[in-house]
Design a protein that fits this description.
The chain has about 325 residues and is mainly alpha-helical. The chain has helices spanning about 5-25, 40-50, 65-70, 85-90, 105-110, 125-140, 150-165, 185-205, 210-220, 230-245, 255-275, 280-324, and strands spanning about 180, 250. The protein folds into two domains: about 5-45 and about 170-324, no CATH class; about 60-165, no CATH class. Helix 1 runs antiparallel to helix 12 (about 280-324).
């Protein structure tokens, strides 16, 4: 090989190293990660406990998530305009969306929430709550035992059962992704790293990437006027990222991580879809916030794993230079 050819190869390898280092510096951070921080988790917990669960937009004593349960208007303290507030009607064993005197709940309705859920199809998570826990809920409300502690316990029991029986997003398997042959050379791995970096740059273009929880908190506290529909951007970004990754050829040694990253992005996309529908289904939005808080750490860790893979590729490239 001529000296000129060797120099050309070294330049190419150095260019590839720079590309790997660029990715590694941005995404590989053993201590920080992209999302994980104590502030991030505290704000997420505050959103769940102090904003979603405790929010009462019309100050009638009936929390917004309860309004969604009954189908009453969270911005109108007397939805049926019969002179009694929505909360007082519930405390009296009456339905807040049916005018007096035809609004008293029957024993059957109190036991299974039949008046609140017309059938078992297309129920929101909040409506499922009314069907499955209405008797306990009403007992706590009407006996003045609906304390913050009991409310949280009841919701957590329901959410725990829901999470145990429902999949947030049907996971894909290795057969769904493109895996390079085991004997693929190092340049194919470099191409993979560069493709991942490009996929991130092309999909995560919204300004609050990595700061979704603080932005959500500000929106819910009316400190940010953009509105919760803003998270359509985040939903589209994560869904688009997952679709892009399905088209990228993964080195065999990183295939499981690549697959996990796709599934993580799909879960987070669903989380933002649920968060976006807060006004319609607040309990599902609550699950969205809780799950996103955990899954975002997993997403960050998976990118760190790819960063580690990048380190190994960088070392291999440097070895090739030394051999020239």
């Amino acid at each position: 090989m001529s000296k000129k050819q060797k120099i050309s190869i070294i330049i190419i390898i150095l260019t590839l190293i720079i590309g790997v280092i660029s990715f590694k510096k941005f995404f590989f951070n053993e201590n920080r990660g992209i999302f994980a921080s104590a502030i991030f988790e505290r704000e997420s917990e505050q959103i769940v406990n102090d904003i979603i669960i405790q929010k009462d937009s019309d100050n009638d004593g009936l929390y917004d998530w309860e309004e969604a349960l009954w189908g009453s208007d969270p911005n109108n303290p007397d939805t049926d305009n019969d002179g009694t507030s929505d909360n007082d009607e519930v405390l009296s064993g009456r339905n807040p969306i049916i005018p007096y005197p035809d609004d008293f709940l029957t024993t059957k309705e109190k036991n299974n929430g039949s008046s609140l859920t017309k059938d078992d199809t297309d129920l929101t998570l909040t409506q499922s709550f009314s069907r499955d826990f209405i008797n306990t809920y009403l007992s706590l409300k009407q006996n003045d035992n609906f304390t913050d502690e009991n409310q949280e316990k009841l919701i957590n029991v329901f959410l725990g059962e829901t999470l145990s029986r429902e999949s947030l997003a049907a996971p894909l398997s290795l057969s769904d992704i493109i895996i390079l042959p085991e004997d693929a050379d190092v340049f194919a791995s470099v191409s993979y790293i560069q493709s991942i970096e490009k996929a991130i740059e092309n999909n995560f273009t919204y300004s609050y990437f990595g700061n979704e929880i603080p932005v959500l908190k500000d929106i819910l506290e009316n400190k940010d006027s953009r509105g919760i529909s803003l998270f359509q951007e985040a939903e589209d970004a994560y869904a688009g990222f997952a679709k892009t990754l399905l088209k990228i050829k993964s080195p065999s040694e990183i295939a499981n991580t690549h697959l996990s990253l796709i599934n993580s992005a799909r879960i987070i996309a669903k989380n933002f879809k649920d968060i976006k529908n807060l006004s319609v289904d607040p309990l599902n939005a609550l699950i969205g916030v809780k799950t996103y808080t955990e899954e975002s750490k997993n997403f960050s860790a998976l990118l760190n794993d790819i960063g580690r893979f990048g380190i190994s590729i960088e070392k291999e490239l440097r070895q090739k230079i030394s051999e020239q």
